[in-house]
Design brief:
Length: 100
């Protein structure tokens, strides 16, 4: 059985018609994300920390034809996992996603 589908990514969940959330994909699972028609990967963790990303994750994602953005919670002033911080974080990410 193929264990490299988007459904096999840790904590994969659809969060709406155009947004999904998940844990860290493997290289093969990023390929599955691209095959599913996804256009943008927004990394919520630090892209240059080996605990939270693959080596050259931005390059890997781009090689599959998707955009890659790192919008780690620590990069947005006032963002945190507390309710007020999540609102600030989502506002920051929404501004990025809705750009012209």
């Amino acid at each position: 059985m193929d264990r490299n589908t988007i459904a096999d990514i840790t904590a994969y969940r659809l969060a709406g018609a155009l947004v999904a959330t998940a844990g860290q994909p493997t290289e093969a699972r990023f390929r599955a994300v691209a095959r599913s028609g996804s256009e943008i990967v927004v990394n919520l963790a630090l892209h240059d920390d080996p605990r939270y990303s693959l080596p050259d994750e931005p390059g890997l994602v781009r090689s599959y034809g998707m955009e890659y953005e790192c919008r780690a919670i620590t990069q947005i002033p006032g963002a945190s996992l507390l309710p007020d911080g999540i609102e600030r974080y989502l506002t920051g990410v929404s501004m990025f996603l809705l750009r012209g």
